[in-house]
TrEMBL record, chain A:
Keyword annotations: Exosome, Nucleus, RNA-binding, rRNA processing
Matches recorded under SUPFAM superfamilies: Eukaryotic type KH-domain (KH-domain type I), Nucleic acid-binding proteins, Ribosomal L27 protein-like
Entry similarity comment: Belongs to the RRP4 family.
Protein name as annotated: Ribosomal RNA-processing protein 4
Annotated Gene Ontology cellular component terms: cytoplasmic exosome (RNase complex); nuclear exosome (RNase complex)
Domain K Homology: 178-220
UniProtKB/TrEMBL annotation, chain B:
Residue ranges annotated for the Exoribonuclease phosphorolytic domain, each copy included: 20-150, 153-218
The UniProt record lists the keyword Cytoplasm: yes
UniProt entry tagged with the keyword Cytoplasm: yes
Organism for this UniProt entry: Ceratodon purpureus (Fire moss)
The protein's name in its UniProt record: Uncharacterized protein
Record keywords: Cytoplasm, Exosome
PANTHER family: EXOSOME COMPLEX COMPONENT, EXOSOME COMPLEX COMPONENT RRP41
UniProtKB/TrEMBL annotation, chain C:
Protein name: Exosome complex exonuclease RRP44
One example GO MF annotation: endonuclease activity
Subcellular location: Nucleus
PANTHER family given in the database record: EXOSOME COMPLEX EXONUCLEASE RRP44, RIBONUCLEASE
Domain of life according to the entry: Eukaryota
Keyword line: Exonuclease, Exosome, Hydrolase, Magnesium, Nuclease, Nucleus, RNA-binding, rRNA processing
GO biological process: nuclear mRNA surveillance of mRNA 3'-end processing; rRNA catabolic process; rRNA processing
Domain PIN: 52-164
Length: 310, 246, 938
């Protein structure tokens, strides 16, 4: 949770803001928070189903992680806040390729295990559908190499915890011309849309459910279409013009907004990002100072104020 | 001439009474880039623990098919003691402590829920003033909880000794050097079980029982403190984020 | 609340290290007043009825300890900062202060000001530690005034500066002198120590007119530097008991002892101080002149008449002369600084002087200590008339270079000079023997009286001790007449096959003296019972020594038994140890036992047992002598005391009969068996006894004397010595005994030690020729035996060994204390005998036969067998000394090699071991110093 280096004055203001946030949390039942080893109050007679983050000890149900208790019908589970990404089918994720070979790519998505992207799960260049051959396997490198950033969707979860991705859509694929910001996965709310186009800024935004956020320049050829088209290593456009300064600045500013939000632990959504972006413009904070203690604290206070109003 | 570790008025060298612990302080999440981290102070002993994981096992050959691999590394900063001294990570004390702390934490982590993964725990002593082992285990516990790794129970630890025929709780460096026994306890507060019991020097059994009891009591006090800090941290995080439902 | 103390320190290797320590400040520290409305009173001591609550500062605690120990000082607050400073500066004063504090009747309270949140202060940047502590004292006093009311609280300090600052802060402060005066007891002023550094209100502006008598001591830093580069040597000063102006400093760096000669060179050092010595140039080294009595000073001392020395420690020191050649001289030096003072309280009396007219005025007097190694001490007193004929106790304060004598102050009176009880008390004090009655806490540890053996209690309830019932065996004890503390009993049962079952049963003291109880702690500090001529100072309370533990006849008693199966030739076939209950059938005296054995008409079971034991004992003794055990004649002297006046009626040599030797033999055997058993079980923490072999140098005087009379002694081994002693027979029957007596003086002392400290060969007991030995047979009067009982009990698995006995450092310090106590008890016993000897001869000058044992340049030393005393006989009058530079007035010639002194005209010759007639009488050459004098009857 600590962002920039705070001196004594800042510490006081931050503490105050945090307290306000806590008190204004609204509807947060104190009993919803548990520590490791705390007893979770359950109605034994009514029966319950034990979910993640719990363990039965003698007659009681104990929490195994620090977090929030969630009850969905009869399912009782404890969700930790700062854990690694827990995938669910259909999530949009951004990941980095770590390994190539053996019919699949291994992708690091900030989860317990690296995700797998099978050769069969990608769209071949040209968009044709055919059976993958051995040649395709040898040509895997043409598609994605180690350290490439890709966007994908979670196809399935397996029993042993391994994760399978697919890029069976034009909107998924290799990512270029942008900046990656990593935040804690729990700050990203699962929404209908994860691909956002900020047209007036000329910037595209992908909010990966795993906490990887991709901010890039709007891809030139797809103003109407979805961004992030099937760009591959092979089809790197030669001679594509370098991005303009303003675009880059905006990308940076947005990226910093995301960083500050991440450091403060505030929910990250397109709205909140835009708000932060605008606030930084309003307060005339140069991009590089957005990560300073001042901005950090002011933002916290603003958020606290807003919450109080609600 | 024997040093008086407990004065006839019942005060120790630093002004505490025999059953009093040193002032404690903890900060959760000091290293944002790690999965879990914590800073733990017991008096002048300051320790930082950082947890990475669970993540893919770096060396395939070490992968365990049914549970997580827990690795722990203990080190002391060169500036942690009175005299600045460069310590390697392979000297005996470091290896011993790494093993001890690793085993203690492994007993708490529900490794079977995380097969084929690896959890790295790094513990570094920033300032050493007696009771480093206990502080390290406490810091590691908090860091693991911060990382959201499922555990059977928190592991809390405390040290106690016996000088001038009195059991003393939470020895500092001066008292530790006094030559009496030094007993460290790793305790599960909710399950009420011991995960670690280590002692150096010989004591008669009656003394041992007294000192063990005292150390356990001390551990319970640490547990209360740790719980408080963790809960506070959880609340802050959750409320910062706002609506918690997915 | 937490504060951090940080300071910078230099380590041993010279590195500078910053030390940071936590310092917790509390709010639960009580003020200690019983009448305080707010504080916790569970440990409060200060009373409402007190006139003043006195807060003392560090110097008052350090210098005015005698005043603080006096009952008039009560309701005193000792601050933690003061206590800490005292502990660091002077440990013995700290211990005394703690004793006073622990005594609830004195109402001293320790206030932990350093941890109280209101009275803790951090030192200011430019403040020295001393100033900071003084300020802490003032702050604490102020807090007390605020807390308890200004009217009551009083700060006591002799430091002018401190007093001034205190008054500025509004604290009521006074000097010790003025405070004592307000108490209205003028005699207390005597207790107030004078320090030359003490600030009197009127400053002495006159230039120092006094001449400097002694050299200034060097500063500590110079001394440390000097020790480092070898210019100075460090060691403990030991003053020659027979010549207080001669002292030795044992120094490892020089290799042998450094001689310090003369008052100037001793430079104000006392016996026992740790000093730094500078060697004099070799030309000044003292040579062989020191064969005779030193006569350099005007206050020379002479050799005294006293008991025959029982070991080398008791004998006057001698220098060896290299075959008549002038010795190269011993390293000689002078004291340049005192590293650690070893001052204690001294007993003695005031030197007679002119009485001042009138009384009540302060007078300066010189105190002469009973221990002749201590110089005279100057004290001031208002009650000179009361002290003049008394034995008093005095404590030393300081010794300035400008003063011939050290300054001290009076502590208390012991009694009249010459009064036997007083003199005995002086002996006890000087030998650090605790003769106070046992405290309540100690007596509470005794079982309720009357005690008797209960079968249920000991055999059934304590079955784990596996106590055997030996009440059916015919057990008896043999002890000196009138002995009531019987710790050993014997039995000897013939077995059908001609072998014997022999048992030694020792009183089971550890059954009643349990570890760490006050009774045990007191006994371990006393270490041993002390046997004076007219009284006995017990290590354990009388109910234990004379009744409950004592193996009296016809009562059932608990014992610890050592039982052997022996062949008819006294060879030990097996041994077993067990706790037991016995019933002694007879408590005989040595005379009675001997009479029974000798009376051929007596044929009863008891007498037969005695005879059997005697026979076995003789065989065992012979075997011991074969191995090389020494039989030396120790001329023990026994007094017959008048029951009413307690004056000695007669004195004579102790008679050793066969019965004595019989009991001794079995006691030795038991001790040796036990030693073997405990060492086997506890190889590193057994308490054993050893007798180191004397070095060849120690045998020098004996060999010289023997050679002079034509006896050849072989000192290579104890057996060789024993054999050659047996062969040393002369014409007169007493010859052999004399040689043995001379041999005794060469022996070292036997000492206790912890087995882990030394290796097996060093466990040897030279005198008994035993590889292993310990003390087991007298737990009633020796603490070492109590420890050995515990070790044996643990070795047999009957009980667990107490924690401290497993700890080697503790055992080592315990054996050091026991050796110290044993030595002191011996010295006290000897001194008591000497005292009674003087009393005996005071009324009866006697003529008696004596034997010459040593030749001196101005006379010889004689030994009087009947009384067991020896002393010098002068052939030359004292007046004749010094005039011609030699101590001989030219009438006598000395032949050192043949140990002969003859008159120049050849008329009279005296050779060593000759018989002469001597007159023994008591003279008083100096007032209050009576002594025995021996003169030759021509």
């Amino acid at each position: 949770m600590s962002g920039p280096h705070l001196d004594a004055d800042h510490e006081l203001r931050i503490a105050k803001a945090q307290r306000l946030l806590r008190d204004a949390a609204g509807g947060m039942h104190s009993r919803a928070f548990v520590n490791v080893g705390d007893v979770i109050p359950v109605d034994h007679e009514a029966g319950y189903l034990r979910g993640h983050g719990t363990q039965p000890v003698k007659e009681e149900l104990l929490a195994t992680v620090c977090g929030v208790v969630e009850r969905v019908n009869k399912l009782v589970s404890v969700r930790p806040l700062r854990a690694r990404y827990n995938a669910e089918t259909g999530d949009v994720v951004v990941g980095r390729v770590t390994e190539v070979g053996g019919n699949r790519w291994k992708v690091d998505v900030n989860s317990r295990k690296d995700a797998e992207l099978l050769l069969a799960a990608v769209n071949l260049p040209g968009g044709i559908q055919r059976r993958r051959t051995a040649i395709d396997e040898l040509n895997m490198r043409d598609l994605y190499v180690e350290n490439d950033l890709i966007s994908a969707e979670v196809q399935s979860l397996h029993q042993d915890g391994s994760l399978h991705l697919h890029t069976r859509s034009l909107k998924y694929g290799k990512l270029r011309n942008g900046q990656l910001v990593r935040v804690a996965p729990y700050l990203i709310k699962r929404l209908k849309q994860h691909f956002h186009q900020l047209k007036d800024l000329g910037v595209d935004l992908i909010l990966g459910c795993n906490g990887f956020i991709w901010i890039s320049a709007a891809s030139p050829g797809n103003k109407d279409n979805l961004p992030g088209s099937v760009a591959t290593s092979a089809s790197a456009v030669v001679g594509e013009s370098p991005l303009q300064f303003e675009v880059r600045e905006r990308i940076c500013r947005l990226a910093n907004s995301v960083r500050v939000l991440g450091a403060l632990g505030l929910l990250i959504s397109p709205d909140s990002i835009m708000q932060t972006y605008e606030a930084s413009l309003l307060w005339e904070v140069p991009v590089k100072d957005m990560l300073s203690a001042d901005f950090y604290v002011k933002l916290a206070e603003k958020e606290a104020e807003q919450r109080m109003k609600r | 001439m024997t040093t008086e570790y407990v004065s006839p008025e019942g005060l120790r060298l630093d002004g505490r009474r025999p059953h009093e612990m040193r002032h404690m302080h903890a900060v959760v999440g000091v290293v944002p880039s790690a999965d879990g981290s914590a800073l733990f102070h017991m008096g002048n002993t300051k320790v930082m623990a950082v947890v990475y994981g669970p993540h893919e096992v770096s060396n395939r050959t070490h992968q365990l098919h049914d549970r997580a691999l827990v690795r722990c590394e203990y080190s002391m900063a060169t500036f942690s003691t009175g005299e600045r001294r460069r310590r390697g990570k392979t000297d005996r004390r470091s290896t011993e402590l790494s093993l001890v702390i690793g085993q203690t934490m492994e007993a708490a982590i529900m490794t079977h829920l995380l097969p084929r993964t690896q959890i790295d725990i790094y513990v570094q002593v920033l300032q050493a003033d007696g009771g480093t082992r206990a502080a390290c285990i406490n810091a590691a516990s908090i860091a693991l909880a911060d990382a959201g790794i499922p555990m059977r129970d928190l592991v809390v630890s405390c040290a106690a000794g016996y000088l001038n025929s009195t059991p003393l709780l939470d020895l500092n460096y001066q008292e530790d050097s006094g030559g009496g026994p030094d007993l460290v306890v790793g305790y599960f507060p909710k399950l009420e079980k011991l995960s670690l019991l280590q002692m150096d020097s010989k004591v008669p059994i009656e003394t041992f029982e007294k000192v063990l009891e005292l150390a356990t009591e001390g551990a319970k006090a640490v547990a209360t403190f740790m719980r408080e800090k963790l809960l506070e941290n959880t609340k802050t995080l959750a409320s910062a984020r706002g609506h918690l439902k997915l | 609340m937490l504060s951090n103390k940080s300071f910078v320190r230099k380590t041993r290797h010279g590195k500078v290290v910053k030390v940071v320590r936590e310092h917790y400040l509390r709010d639960d520290i009580a003020c200690g007043a019983l009448f305080c409305p707010t504080c916790d009173k569970s440990r409060a001591k200060l009373r409402d009825t007190a006139l003043n609550i006195v807060v003392i500062d560090t110097n008052v605690a350090l210098h005015q300890m005698d005043l603080l120990e006096n009952e008039v000082m009560s309701d005193v607050v000792v601050l933690a900062v003061v206590l800490e400073e005292v502990k660091n500066k002077n440990l013995s004063i700290y211990n005394r202060l703690r004793t006073v504090i622990d005594n609830p009747l004195r109402h001293f309270f320790v206030f932990s000001n350093e941890n109280h949140k209101d009275t803790y202060i951090k030192s200011l940047p430019t403040e020295t530690p001393n100033d900071r502590n003084d300020r802490a004292i003032r702050v604490a006093s102020q807090w007390y005034q605020h807390h308890l009311g200004a009217a009551k609280v009083l700060l006591l300090t002799n430091d002018n500066d401190n007093r001034r600052k205190a008054r500025e802060d509004g604290i009521v402060a006074e000097t010790v002198d003025s405070y004592v005066q307000t108490l209205g007891k003028p005699e207390l002023l005597d207790l107030v120590a004078r320090s030359d550094a003490m600030d009197v209100d009127v400053e002495d502006l006159r230039p120092n007119k006094k001449a400097v008598v002694y050299g200034e001591h060097k500063v500590m830093s110079e001394i440390t530097a000097g020790l480092h580069n070898g210019r100075f040597h460090q060691g403990k000063l030991r003053v020659n008991r027979y010549n207080p102006f001669e002292a030795y400093v044992g120094s490892e760096s020089v290799g042998e002892e450094i001689l310090i000669h003369g008052r100037q060179d001793m430079n104000r050092a006392f016996d026992g101080d740790v000093v730094a010595v500078e060697l004099l140039p070799q030309s000044s080294w003292v040579g062989s002149e020191v064969g005779k009595i030193a006569d350099r000073d005007d206050e020379e001392e002479e050799e005294q008449v006293g008991l025959v020395p029982a070991s080398a420690d008791d004998a006057p020191r001698e220098f060896k002369l290299e075959d008549g050649k002038k010795a190269a001289g011993r390293p000689t030096g002078r004291v340049v600084g005192i590293i650690k003072r070893n001052w204690r309280q001294y007993c003695g009396s005031i030197e007679p002087m002119k009485m001042p007219g009138g009384s009540g005025g302060t007078v300066q007097a010189l105190f002469v200590s009973a221990d002749r190694r201590i110089p005279k001490i100057r004290i001031q007193t208002r009650q000179i008339a009361n002290l003049i004929d008394k034995r008093i106790m005095v404590s030393v304060d300081s010794w300035e270079p400008t003063s011939r004598y050290p300054n001290g102050h009076y502590v208390r009176t012991i009694g009249d000079i010459g009064d036997r009880a007083t003199e005995s008390d002086v002996l006890l004090i000087e030998n650090d023997i605790n003769s106070r009655p046992f405290s309540e806490a100690v007596l509470a540890c005794l079982p309720p009286l009357p005690w008797s053996f209960s079968e249920e209690e000991h055999l059934k309830n304590h079955a784990h001790l596996k106590r055997e019932d030996l009440r059916h065996i015919r057990i008896f004890s043999v002890d000196p007449p009138g002995c009531r503390d019987i710790d050993d009993a014997l039995h000897c049962t013939p077995l059908p096959d001609g072998r014997f079952e022999v048992g030694v049963h020792i009183a089971d003291v550890t059954n009643f003296v349990l570890p760490n109880l006050p009774l045990d702690v007191e006994a371990s500090q006393r270490g041993t019972s002390v046997y004076m001529v007219e009284r006995r100072i017990d290590m354990l309370p009388k109910p234990l020594t004379e009744d409950i533990c004592s193996l009296r006849a016809d009562v059932e008693r608990l014992a610890f038994s050592c039982i052997w199966i022996m062949s008819s030739e006294a060879e030990i076939e097996s041994v077993r140890f067990t706790k037991s209950v016995i019933k002694s059938c007879a408590a005989l005296s040595y005379a009675e036992a001997q009479a029974r054995m000798d009376d051929s008409r007596m044929m009863d079971g008891l007498t037969t047992d005695l005879r059997n034991m005697n026979r076995l004992a003789k065989i065992m003794r012979l075997r011991r002598i074969e191995r090389g055990a020494l039989t030396l004649a120790s001329p023990e002297v026994k007094f017959e005391i008048d029951t009413e006046t307690h004056d000695p009626l007669d004195v004579g040599m102790y008679q050793v009969r066969e019965a004595n030797m019989m009991v001794e033999e079995f006691m030795l055997a038991a001790n040796m068996s036990v030693a073997g058993k405990i060492l086997k079980e506890f190889p590193s923490c057994s308490l054993l006894r050893r007798h180191p072999e004397p070095t060849p140098q120690m045998f020098e005087p004996l060999l010289r004397t023997a050679a002079a009379v034509g006896v050849n002694l072989d000192i290579s081994t104890s057996k060789a010595l024993a054999d050659s002693l047996d062969l040393a027979v002369g014409d007169d029957p007493y010859f052999n005994k004399l040689i043995r007596i001379l041999a005794t003086r060469c022996m070292t002392q036997a000492v206790y030690f912890c087995s882990g400290e030394l290796s097996y060969p060093e466990y040897l007991h030279y005198g008994l020729a035993a590889p292993l030995y310990t003390h087991f047979t007298s737990p009633i009067r020796r603490y070492a035996d109590v420890v050995v009982h515990r070790l044996l009990s643990a070795a047999l698995g009957l009980s667990s060994l107490p924690e401290q006995l497993r700890d080697m450092p503790h055992l080592t310090s315990l054996s050091d204390n026991l050796n110290y106590r044993h030595r002191n008890a011996q010295m006290a016993g000897r001194a008591s005998v000497e005292l009674h000897t003087v009393i005996f001869f005071k009324k009866r000058p006697t003529d008696e036969e004596a034997r010459i044992v040593k030749i001196r340049s101005n006379g010889f030393i004689v030994f009087i067998p009947k009384f067991g005393i020896e002393g010098p006989v002068y052939l030359v009058g004292k007046e004749a000394k010094g005039s011609s530079g030699s101590s001989n007035d030219g009438m006598w010639e000395v032949d050192d090699e043949h140990q002969i002194i003859r008159s120049t005209d050849g008329s009279r010759t005296f050779k060593v071991l000759n018989t002469v007639r001597i007159r023994i009488e008591v003279v008083e050459p100096q007032p209050n110093r009576q002594k025995l004098q021996l003169t030759l009857i021509m």
